[in-house]
Amino acid sequence: MGQSEQGELSAAQIFYPCMQCADIFFLKADICQLGMDQREVNVLAREYCDDNRRKNKPIILSHRQEKMSKSDPSSSIFMEDDEAEVNLKIKKAYCPPKIVQGNPCLEYIKYLILPWFKEFKVERSVENGGDKAFKSYEGLIASYESGELHPGDLKPSLSKALNTVLEPVREHFKKDANARDLLKRIKVLTESQNDARI
User: Fold this and answer.
1) What is the mean pLDDT of each run of 10 residues along the chain (198 residues)?
2) What percent of the chain is helix, strand and coil (3-state, nearest 5)?
3) Exposed, middle or buried by CB within 10 Å (0-12, 13-18, 19+), for 83?
4) Which CATH class is domain 73-173?
5) Residues forming beta bridges with residue 59, ordered by sequence position
6) Is 60 in a helix, a strand, or coil?
7) Using the 8-state DSSP alphabet, how is residue 113 labeled?
8) Which UniProt keywords are listed (predicted)?
9) 174 close to 180: Cβ distance less than 8 angstroms
10) What confidence score (pLDDT) does residue 93 get?
């Protein structure tokens, strides 16, 4: 909860992490995929397994996104998103010119695109400086902070790279009947949970 051990906690601040931890076991989750802001709850679940000699500790898979909106699927990119959905989500994504801190588009490039492709290719018109390939995040940031690289050029290039990464997943869901059926069931479950929240 970000509190010091000496600080006073309300009952809600004590019960909420316990309830989040209990959710992991109630759902029989093998993998807990949450944001970095939820990492402590995942660690609590794993420590509970150690303390109670419980087998099959959940695997922690923390993503870099600071906050996710549970009620807004457009705030995240999902493995099964089609090309048009990815393009639209990136087009709408928060990405102010010259601002690096808290910029999710730059985080996608740093943690996914650069490690995957070993470079980030930006396609630009000749008037905007022409195409450029960034081999390091530091070079990308310098160009972005100076204004040489604009979100209007960065976003389409990011969308293209993300769609390249996701294409094999889309093909898998198209060609494999079991995967397609599983995806349909997950979507039905997700929609019913979102309806319950409303």
Assistant:
1) 62 84 81 75 84 81 57 73 94 94 93 94 88 96 96 96 94 91 82 58
2) 60, 10, 30
3) middle
4) mainly alpha
5) 31
6) strand
7) I
8) Aminoacyl-tRNA synthetase, ATP-binding, Ligase, Nucleotide-binding, Protein biosynthesis
9) yes
10) 92
